Structures are given as structure tokens and as C-alpha cells.
Amino acid sequence: MSNLLERAKELGELVKESEEFKTLLAAKEAFEADEEAKSIIIEYNDFQKKLYEKMRDKNASQEEIGKLKEEGEAIRVRIEENSVTSDLLAAQKVFTNVLNSVYETIQTTVTGRKGCGGNCGSCGGCE
Q1: CB of 78 within 8 A of CB of 40?
Q2: In this structure, are residues 51 and 69 in contact, taking their beta carbons and an 8 Å threshold?
């Protein structure tokens, strides 16, 4: 087991050295230094809470929910238009894909079978 954990640490170090991880760290640093970007994300998180509460409210009308969704769409557009937030989201997505690829490679090596990509609704089950 200790050899396995040592190899896991080595793998972790390789991940930290990857360009994708370095890009993610740089995007996080830029985000933390940008008050406007942080403000947009806080606003979006607050919106999500409001929408969740409104959707749980049995007395909420579809019109109220629709207005909130429009508000959310406007915030989403601001997130996409802000280079700092859009760069951070893109870097997170790329890095997550790297980690998923590493996991799939390990899984394939251990099981001897290549996974289907995780979309279990697309087939009748794993082989």
C-alpha cells in the first residue's frame, strides 16, 4: 500500500506541474485580484439562492420564476463577457477534463476495460 501511496503522490506532483494546473492557478489569482469579477460571482450565487427559494415556494407564479430566470441570464452574460471570470471558468473546465482523463486511464488500467465516458443514460449499462 505504501508504494501505491508514493505513486499517488508522484502523480499529484505531475498534475501540479501541468500547464493546465498552472493556467488554473493564474486564472484564480487574477480572479482574486479583480473586485468586479468577484462581485459578479457573488451576485450570481445570490441569484441562485433566490431562484432555488422561489422554485420551492408553492405560491410563486411562473411569471415570477420567469423574471428571475431572465435576471440570471443577464448575470450569466456578464460572467461570459468579463474576461477574468470567463478565463477562470474555462481553466476550471480544462483542468477538470485533465483530472477526468487521469481517472479514466487509471480505471481502464485497473479494470482492463475502457469506460464509456460516464454518460450512463446513453447505453444499456457497462460491459
Answers
A1: yes
A2: yes
